[in-house]
């Protein structure tokens, strides 16, 4: 599934829809260059879960936990991680296979430890269309997410 989005508001809205669809144990992997909108997707995602806390990118903490929504949100930012062992040391498996939804910014940095089933969200700038335009591709992997892409519409 591919979307062309031309505003922060629409990016937040798409994230919100993803959050509404998320279930406990789901993993969502965000990739894209700096400034493409990964944190905006994350903020919308949290809203879709009903999280009422301020969402910030956990660049220096690696993971932020939010428990005010219908299920917990475990929000990772692995941009500054040097290797997958660092993530495993903080209990990555307990988050990913836990009772909440896991959202991972810069997931391409830890591909070797991602579960087999996840939703990949890739965001790219589309400068030829305008400054705020983004191409967002969503692809679900694994039987857990059968027909997931159609549910977004």
TrEMBL record:
Name where it's found: Cytoplasm
The keyword Repeat is assigned to this record: no
Citing just one GO molecular function, the answer is: metal ion binding
Q: Which GO terms describe its biological process?
A: tRNA threonylcarbamoyladenosine modification
Q: Which Pfam families match?
A: TsaE (PF02367)
Give the matching NCBIfam families: T6A_YjeE
Return the protein name: tRNA threonylcarbamoyladenosine biosynthesis protein TsaE
Can you name the source organism?
Answer: Clostridium paridis
Identify the coding gene. tsaE
């Amino acid at each position: 599934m591919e979307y062309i989005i031309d505003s922060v508001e629409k990016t937040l809205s798409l994230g919100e829809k993803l959050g509404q669809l998320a279930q406990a144990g789901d993993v969502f992997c965000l990739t894209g260059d700096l400034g493409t909108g990964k944190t905006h997707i994350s903020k919308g995602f949290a809203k879709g879960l009903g999280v009422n806390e301020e969402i910030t990118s956990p660049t220096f903490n690696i993971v932020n936990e939010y428990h005010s929504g219908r299920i917990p949100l475990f929000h990772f930012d692995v941009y500054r991680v040097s290797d997958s062992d660092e993530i495993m040391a903080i209990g990555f498996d307990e988050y990913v296979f836990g009772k909440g939804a896991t959202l991972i910014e810069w997931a391409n940095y830890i591909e070797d430890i991602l579960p087999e089933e996840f939703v990949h969200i890739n965001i790219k700038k589309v400068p030829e269309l305008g400054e705020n335009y983004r191409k967002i591709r969503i692809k679900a992997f694994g039987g857990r997410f059968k027909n997931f892409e159609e549910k977004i519409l």
